[in-house]
Specification:
single chain; alpha/beta; seven-stranded mixed β-sheet; 9 helices; globular
Amino acid sequence: MSSSSVISKNNSWQRIAFGSCFNPNRGDDIWDLIAQFAPNQLLLLGDQIYADFHPKTGFWQKSTPEIIRKEYEKFFKLPGWKSLAEKLSHGWISTYDDHDYGNNNADKTWKYRKEAMDAFREFNKDHFTPVPFLDENGQEIFDGVYSSKDFIVPTPEGHDFRYTVILLDSRSNKDPKGTTNGDFLGSRQWEWLASELDRASKASNLILLGSSIQVIPNEKLLEETWNEFPAARQRLLELVTKASLRTNIFLLSGDIHSAELSQATCYATLRGPDSETVVVPRRLMEFTSSGLSHTFANRMDVQKIHDVAKLKKSQRQSTTPAPYTNYLPSLINSRGYLSDVLFNVYQISNPSNHRANRYSDIYTNLHFSTLDIQSSSGGNAAASYDASFRDMNDLWHTSPAADMEWRTINFDGKTVQFKRLPLFDTFHQPQGVVTYNGSQFDLNRLTVADLTLLFHIATLQDPNLQGYGTG
């Protein structure tokens, strides 16, 4: 990668990098690459360490509280990570998933639940805001590592752009697989989430809601998703859809060792002052980024994927800033054949969602993702927006106040997925009032009971996605 390959921040007010699935025993060169893109902030969406993988053999092992802590210590001593962390003007925020929780696909019955939670809070203490509750004795207790934080970024126009990051904990209170009407969050986290979304949707121009596992996809077989507990998934989508009526909101996720764009169309029923109702469609989008150190590669990529741990600094060209200019053939077990089989099964079982360009919306090599928030391009740039997203989500019929550009960036620093989306100005309208089909609706009166999720489809084929292939 030449230095010209690095995406310029141009008019970006804020560049947010995000990703998941990093094993510190595989090297830390990915952090050097991310640093070249100069993000203001980094979101880690789980699997910050792999406590249940042996650091030398790479095989499964039974983790213990001591191993969890040792792997965290190893992570925070990595030179590449330390260098990047010092450069993040808005810092980094994290949650955990199963491997840093301590056991693959673990749930609330995990015997080291408390110890894993305590280790996360200790090592990430300055980078998330814990949510305490009072027990019967008035003592603070914690039942998860979920958190939220608000940020203010000045714009060139002299305004304040406000955004909120909310990161869920889908492990500490997850019911065991197969539980009837199972749940991911637990009653306290649900109560907190509803309150945070309500607050942020009234105060922020943008909400980024992170889940360690995917929310929208409903066709996955091996990968964990919220579809494991459909009632909980619907409850979450209802809350997100409600928030989308007031402000811009996007889902972020990790876990699957691939990058993926998922979409859903949800329908909200609004009730007017005279009890009239109207059904309003909302387009939800989820950006998945999972593969900071190892990925779920398809067969076409096996010869191109490299193992970060085997990439020695002495084998790079000293004249280039790119960590991955010279890479070795993969020495990892890529599971590529299984990837191909799964994608074929998904297409057969969901013929209406067949991918015209098979891998256009999934990227399976090492990568991270970025979100650039910037001044609205307007004019000719409007043609590059996702038209259905723009038309469906602009309740206010205004010109976009800002743009958000999503990219997946591979190990060579190349953009392999891209989408430009409008961010609508919700704050220059009468607060909480939407005019739709000639009627005004007061969103401040809208409750979850007024919101009905009528239909859902995961849009796997996206003709507006600017994909750059899988290589």
